[in-house]
Amino acid sequence: MQIRIGILGCGKIARLHAEGYKLAGDLAKVVVCCDEYSIELAEKMASEFGADTTSRWQDVIERADVDAISICMPPYQHAEIALAAAAAGKHVLVEKPMAMNLAECKTMVEAAAKAGTVLMVGQNQRFQPEHVQIKELLDREAIGRIVALRFDCNQFVKYMYPPDSWIFDKAKSGGGMIAQTAIHKIDLMRHFFGEIKEVSAMTGFTGLNLNYKPGGNEDIAALLMNFNNGIIGEAFYLFAAHKTPIPTTTGELTIFYGEKGIIHNVLGWHIYSTDVPEYSGGLTKLDIRTYPYIDSVAAEILHFLESIRNGKEPITSGRDNLGTMAVIDAMYQAAETKTVVQVEQTQ
Predict the structure, then answer these.
(1) From 3.90.228.20, 3.30.360.10, 3.20.20.70, 3.30.420.60, which CATH number describes the 126-295+325-342 domain?
(2) Residue 245: pLDDT above 90?
(3) Which of 9, 211, 257, 273 is the S-S candidate for 168 at Cβ 3.0 to 4.6 Å?
(4) How many CB atoms lie within 10 A of CB 28?
(5) Which residues contact 12 (CB under 8 A, 6 or more apart)?
(6) Are the beta carbons of 44 and 67 closer than 8 angstroms?
(7) Whole-angstrom Cα distance, residue 132 to residue 300?
C-alpha cells in the first residue's frame, strides 16, 4: 500500500522532496500540496501528482487520507506543525533546521515518541553517495584514528534569495549561516565521528547582504569544535563570497587528518594512507564522482518511507538530531558570550 503524503511548503527545497516522492512512486503518493504564501506554487506542484491544494497547513493535518507529511516551511513553524501532526498520528519529515532551538526540538521528539510516529530530519548530506563512500573508508580506518578536521562553505546569499525571504529574518529562521548551512556539516561530522563536547564561535555581519544586520542573522562565522573522542575541528562560513576560493568536488571544503593519512575533496576526493598500499604512493584521487544534489534528497525520501513501512528509526531521526541542535544552540551561546560552551549531551 502506498503511503499518502502531504507536502507543506512548495518552494525550492519542496521541489526536491516532490522529485523524491516521484522516484519512490511504488511506496508513496502525494495527495495534497500546501503553500501559505503562493497557491500558484501549490497548484503547480499538485498538478504533477493529480493532488489537491490548500493554503492552510491545518487542512493537511486534518485529512484522514494523509499518512505522512514533508514540512518544507520556515523553521519558526516546524515545531507547531510537527506537534499537530504527531497528535493526529502522522509521520513527519521536517527540513533542517529541525526547529528554532533545542527546546522546541525536544517537544517534537517527545510528541512523536508518545504517538508512535516517525520523526525524521532532512539532513540529506548523510545520504550523499560521496559521503556514504567516504564513511566506508573512515569506518575501515583507511587513514587511522582521526585527529583533526576542517570544513567550510562560501556563498553569496543575496544572489540566492529574494530580499523578502524568511531566511533573512531571525525570528523566522532561527539564525544565519550556522543554523541554515553549517548545520549540514555539523550533522555529518556527528554521523562520522560522534558527539561534540564543547565549542567556541565568532560571528559577524559583512554589510554586503543588506538584509543581514547586527542583532539579526550572521553572514560570517568561524567555529571551533572539540569532539568527545578528542578530535579538534574548525569551520569557516561566509555568505558574502563572490567566488569559491578553493575548488572542491562538492562546493564545500572537507579535510580529515588521520594518524595514518589524510582525506580531502580539493579538485576531487583524494586520499593518502601510510598503511593501505594502494593509497601509499602519495595523494591518490579516489574513484568517487560528483552526484546530482537530487540523489541525496531522493535517498533521504526513500529512507523516510522505508522507515515508516518497516517501523524503524531513521538514521536522521528527530532523536538523533537533538545532538546536532545542541551544537547549534551552543555555538550561538558561545558567539554571544565570547566563551567556550559545553554542548548538552542528548544521546
Answers:
(1) 3.30.360.10
(2) no
(3) 211
(4) 24
(5) none
(6) no
(7) 12
